[in-house]
Amino acid sequence: MKKAMVSALLCAASLGLGMVGCSSGEKKVQQAVPKVGVSLPTQREERWVRDKVKMEQVCRDIGLELVLKVADNDAQRQDKQCDSLVAQGAKVLIVAPQDGKAAASIVEKAHKAGAKVIAYDRMILGADVDLYVSFDNVKVGELQGEALSKLAPKGVYVVLSGSPDDNNAAQFRAGAMKVLQPLIDKKDITVVLDQAIQDWSPAEAQKTMTAVLAAHKNKIDAVLAPNDGIAGACIAALEAQNLAGKVPVTGQDADLAAAQRIVKGTQSMTVYKNTRKLGAVAVQAALAMAMGQPVAMINGKVNNGKVDVPAILCDPIAVDKGNLDSALISSDYLKKEDVYK
Ligand code: GAL
Q1: Same domain for 107 and 180?
Q2: Cα-to-centroid distance, 300 and ligand 1 (Å)
Q3: For the segment 262-271, what is each residue's pLDDT rounded down to a tens digit?
Q4: CB within 10 Å: which end of the chain, N or C, has fewer?
């Protein structure tokens, strides 16, 4: 959205806390600027850094005041941070919850204070969430399952999933299982370990992968890794057994390190979710909501156990060696010189 357009919208409404000068012909008039609060779970995965940078940039471009906090994988801290965002006058909260269930209280408290809540990337469960901005997360898992089962149609599988308090983790797993379960039922695939990794911790994933390799005398044919952080950890464990590049491993997020591993041949694929687009879409939706305008781009509804939440869902893209350049480099998500360094 162009700055001029937002200024026009701002000039038409009286909102929020801050004030901005809007020119009306020669005359400058004071207008209210809506304040948006953003609460992210972490900055550990590179993708969350990209989300943050994009939201900050879009807010700057369109003249929205942004207050952003990072919860460092701590749901209680996130709850307190959101209280403070609302107390500081945020009219809309964009929240990527650390714990999907626990974050319901963030929504309740925000609503009591008259603020609206967008669940960002991860759904907030059991609450009257105003909008969900994310990807088709079941599809993410399907893309992982499809890629892995093509590379290893039969054999011994390790199935790792993300943090149990993150609703996405269950969605990714469900998507992958849509593809893998029929092969498990046919006994083409045997799953020797099916485990969630708390907080998506690479350290925990590496320990887990090291242990399962030892327990099965290195006879593992495929690893379903739910994101690139966990993929990297599993590949490090495989490397220690001289198996990196010999056992297919999935991923997600299009991290630079993952793209480098794909080029090297140690990681089979990743799933590209354009988090820059997601960040921009969320900020634009927040602006509309703060101004009491309808949100454009809604293309679905997702039930969160309490209500059908109107949703803007973007498409994930599977990336392997074959389309890495066109998907990630031509789109300027990653730089060629970094990937091929
Ligand atoms: C998920 C998110 C993934 C990944 C993971 C770990 O909720 O959708 O992209 O980053 O969290 O942070």
Answers
A1: no
A2: 21
A3: 999 999 999 9
A4: C
